[in-house]
Amino acid sequence: MANNFLLEIGLEEIPAHVVTPSINQLKKRASDFLKDQRISFANIKTFSTPRRLALYITGLADKQPDIDKSVKGPAKKIAKDSDGNWTKAAIGFSRGQGATPDDITFKDVKGTEYVFVEKHIAGKPLKEILTGMKDVITAMTFPTMMKWGTYSFEYVRPIKWLVALLNDQVIPFKILDVETDRITSGHRFLGKDIELTNADEYEEKLTEQFVIADAAKRKELISKQINKIAADNNWKINLDPGLLEEVNNLVEWPTAFYGNFDEKYLTIPDEVLITSMKDHQRFFYVTDQEGKLLPHFISVRNGNDYDIQNVVAGNEKVLTARLDDAMFFYQEDQKKSIADYVERLKKVSFHDKISTMYEKMQRVQVMAGYLGKLAGLSEQQLKDLDRAASIYKFDLVTGMVGEFAELQGVMGNKYALLKGEDQAVATAISEHYMPISANGELPKTDVGSILAIADKLDSILTFFAAGMIPSGSNDPYALRRQATGIVRIVAERQLNFDLDDTLDKLIDLEDQAKVAPKLDMKSQVSAVSAFTKDRIKQYLDDLGVRYDIADAVTSGSHTNILFNIASAKTLQDHKDDTDFKDIIESLTRVQRISKKGSFKDDDLRVDASLFENDSEKALYDAVSSASKDYTSQSAETDFDRLSQLKDAINDYFDATMVMAKDDQLKNNHLRQLTIIANMIMYLGDLDKLVVKG
Questions:
Q1: Left (φ > 0), alpha (ψ -120 to 50) or beta: where does 349 sit?
Q2: How far apart are CA 114 and CA 137, in angstroms?
Q3: What structural domains and CATH numbers belong to the chain?
Q4: In the sheet that 112-121 helps form, which strands lie side by side, from edge to edge?
Q5: Calpha distance 620→105 (Å, rounded)
Q6: pTM of the shown model
Q7: Which is it for strands 159-166 and 178-181: parallel, antiparallel or unpaired?
Q8: Are 359 and 517 in contact (CB under 8 A)?
Q9: pLDDT of 323-340, one tens digit each?
């Protein structure tokens, strides 16, 4: 018989952003639990609202399948003594299997007889298994957890009720003081409690009590309602997926409505109006068919349309108050000059262990100038970059950004243009924050790209020097995201520079300009480089590069981000070549043996007069040719040159005893191999590659 099971966790209102990941987690945990318990099922349907997480599992088997298995024990010679009596080992083994020595049989395994016991394990009934759903519920994790009452147990919000119905039978278990039952709750204001007869009527009964439990159906209804309002008024609506998801997780019975605000507020920049509506009030903004913002908004009520005009008036009042604040700040901010705001940054802390925000801008100005020249920016671009770097944080102390923190950079752009700054300067001010997420939009201009890199490099370097290095999942200053941003911008803009050398040079320039913080940044260059290489790995993974290739190129000696990426792409392109395995094996053999020597770069002169066979001379000539201008070539050319050494390397190892008894000969051999190993490491640590025949 196929069975259906309903599990519902009733809660105090869950934060909207937690609802969807929570129901997905519950579904996965329940699925894994049933599979672990060997209970087959047909499907798991999810239901979620701000007040409930529920699963409807269909096609469940009546019980676990029975298991018959042979359990192997000790060898026969250990199981019986010389008189043929059972030993303690045999008795203990049989007892451990719930049997007696009389149940023991012997089987031959590769010429040796072993003890076996045949076990029949009867499957547990479904009803007994499902009590384990308690552990599925309590094992869940959330971004924020809370306790309630006198309990030490933590959950996303207090549990108010539990439903666990197998067909028409309650599955009994208890979490804290809440026992499972067949009673669920309807809409907080419009509905009432419902006693469910069986699991199958859950969705229908909730709908009768003004709860649309299916999140997908609820979202579809919201979209239809909003689109109808827009169509009726000839408006255009941007149904932002993130906002729609959030609104959907705030309601159980959605009713969309629209409201208005005074046209005078349209003099405020659109970004301010949209932020006020979307981010602060969860409203959808309205435009005409050409995309021009209109003085209206659309919102969604958690309820029906009863007395909807009062709801509209209340929302209009709240939005108007916020727009009044925005207009006040917008007008007041324009009364001061950019220089006034920059001066105020001298009293704003970037971090109390590092510097003020003004001092950060001074450092970034030095860094941006050097990076801009490395990138080949024009004289005008360098001029724009210098100006942008000298003021780019000024909007942080404006009233508007103080009230609407989400608008930092955006208002810097707006105010810069109002104060007569060039478009390139204004754009760079807004672009320096990009990307604002790991896969977010990148700066579109050269000036904005360099400013973004300089700002992020300064943050990473100074936080590392101040001892605030990300560990585990702890990254309060989003340094990983900033490093990812650097990698992505470098790749997008094809910026060719060695990170270690550049960081050293930037620190020296800051010292010369007397803008460096009182921190030991030099000691952190290698740590910052390694940190950045971890982000390169993630970037390559996103591109579909094989994990061992990403590991190899980021473990090499080269700290040029662009070259690391190019090396990975080269190896990825050649990994399926017929001779790839042979090439890599030859090169990695050189790497491994060369580690037996220890030579400095200025001690790598190979003495040709010590060669004992033709293969040494042939390899020496091949390496001399391959190493010419090696470090100024592309990754593809370097790989090609290394590949051409394969035959010479193999011949060398066939004819040469590398670890000769004569130290002079041995060291000459190892110097020769170290030169090749250094060339290999420039491309990457190829010993980390997984090559298969």
A1: beta
A2: 44
A3: 3-63+125-209 (3.30.70), 67-121 (no CATH), 215-334 (no CATH), 349-543 (no CATH), 563-688 (1.10.730)
A4: 67-75, 112-121, 104-109
A5: 69
A6: 0.82
A7: parallel
A8: yes
A9: 999 999 999 999 999 999
